[in-house]
Design brief:
The structure holds 2 protein chains of 2 kinds. Chain A is mainly alpha-helical. Chain A is 82% helix and 0% strand. The chains are: A mainly alpha, B mainly alpha.
């Protein structure tokens, strides 16, 4: 492996991180909105959301990736690879995040909501000032877990030719006829990315615990 | 509508893909369960050097994207003299990847168990692998049924990655039809619906097993 090869893997790693990060930023709030729809039992939309989540959770990322990338142009929506990759990962993440948020919402103590209502807070206020701050804390471990899962399925975007890290490693392996070294470099890089995420979560939790104790 | 007819005409190819997916997933899921159970046994028996090594291997597996493992096994093993077909490589990858998750989820269930069960088993003279097989494993497996079902769904979803090493499973077949006739929406949506059906079937099976487990308790 030459220096250029290692550089190609690092560039791929940046793509992996960028695609995953954007997908998380889009997928997490969308999941929250779906969870609110289901939690509030909004008529019609509730059923639609339930079916959508069930379907998306059963769909492999590779299959969804091919569907998004190849099917959208047939209804005259041209999407660049990068956008299709982000949309696919965000859709999957949305479905999983919906279930996480919904679980946290169901477990949320009802007394607090009733107390806030008794103090004259309206629903949006209750959500923003009472529910959300505590919800983020209780859902955080599951959300971070879902983020690591998203990074682990992110190589699926390589099937439509996005130059992320796994694809870079495969190309180097094919051109040098020595596949193992680039795979090992990619593997270690994934471990660093996922490890950093888990570490950030632990630090955040420790800070919250310290603030709660103070 | 015309697209759907094209897919219908090519149903043979799609059905072959479904057959391959079901076959590969079933074999891999059974092997992953057995291997995971074995690794779980090693973990809880705390064998010197072996158990910590297995723990590291499991943690490593859980930090690797499945697609990378596929490539590593399919392209990497021949360089150490192990050559195998793409289906065998796919089954091997699915098995060892998911076995790590199975071992970890069984360990998680076991951690919540009261120690009395084990102490009682030891008092009756059960030690080592006999303790694991007769006393620990049965209730741990029963309590893990929902999570094992989730893992089974994960195996189904991971199996789509095998198309990248040219295993002719469902996604591969749908992509073939898509590329040949340019009917991406109909063919890939058909594949998505079949995956959904498979996952719903697993959920039904899990529900049935839970009812049986509840009755036997």
């Amino acid at each position: 492996m030459s220096e250029g090869d290692i550089l190609a893997i690092i560039l791929g790693a940046f793509n992996t991180i960028a695609i995953s990060a954007i997908a998380i930023v889009i997928g997490t709030p969308l999941g929250f909105i779906l969870a609110l729809i289901r939690w509030g039992r909004v008529p019609v939309l509730n059923g639609v959301a339930a079916v959508l989540v069930s379907l998306l959770r059963a769909t492999p990322s590779v299959t969804l990736m091919l569907l998004v990338y190849f099917a959208l142009p047939t209804i005259n929506i041209e999407v660049p690879r990068f956008a299709a990759a982000i949309a696919t990962l965000a859709l999957g993440s949305m479905a999983y995040n919906c279930e996480i948020w919904r679980g946290a919402l169901i477990a949320f103590p009802k007394e607090q909501i009733e107390a806030a209502a008794a103090f004259g807070m309206r629903a949006p206020q209750r959500l923003r000032l009472v529910i959300l701050p505590q919800l983020v804390r209780s859902a955080l471990p599951a959300l971070v877990n879902e983020m690591t899962l998203l990074i682990k399925v992110s190589p699926a975007v390589a099937v439509i030719g996005v130059a992320e890290m796994t694809r870079a490693a495969v190309r180097i392996g094919a051109s040098t006829y020595r596949p193992v070294p680039p795979f090992v470099v990619a593997l270690l890089t994934y471990m660093v990315i996922i490890g950093a995420l888990v570490l950030a979560q632990r630090m955040l939790e420790a800070r919250q615990a310290a603030r709660a104790a103070a | 509508m015309k697209d759907l007819l094209v897919v219908w005409d090519e149903r043979e190819l799609l059905l072959k893909g479904i057959e391959a997916t079901v076959e590969i997933v079933s074999i891999s899921a059974i092997l992953a369960f057995l291997l995971g159970l074995f690794l779980f046994g090693i973990l809880i028996l705390k064998i010197r050097y072996v158990s910590p090594a297995v723990k590291v291997m499991i943690d490593l597996m859980r930090a690797v994207p499945f697609m990378l493992l596929c490539y590593l096994i399919y392209y990497g093993l021949p360089s150490v003299g192990l050559v195998m077909g793409n289906i065998e490589a796919g089954i091997l990858a699915l098995t060892i990847y998911n076995a790590a998750y199975v071992a970890e989820l069984l360990r998680g269930t076991w951690a919540a168990f009261p120690p009395e069960t084990i102490e009682a088993g030891q008092a009756f003279g059960f030690y080592g692998w006999r303790l694991v097989a007769r006393i620990i494993a049965p209730p741990v497996i029963l309590d893990s049924i929902p999570m094992l079902g989730n893992q089974m769904i994960q195996v189904i979803k991971d199996s789509a990655f095998l198309m990248i090493i040219a295993v002719q499973e469902l996604t591969y077949a749908a992509n073939e039809i898509q590329a040949t006739y340019y009917v991406p929406f109909a063919s890939l949506l058909a594949a998505v619906l079949f995956y959904w059906l498979l996952c719903l079937a697993v959920e039904q099976a899990v529900g049935g097993m839970l009812r049986v487990a509840e009755r036997r308790r």
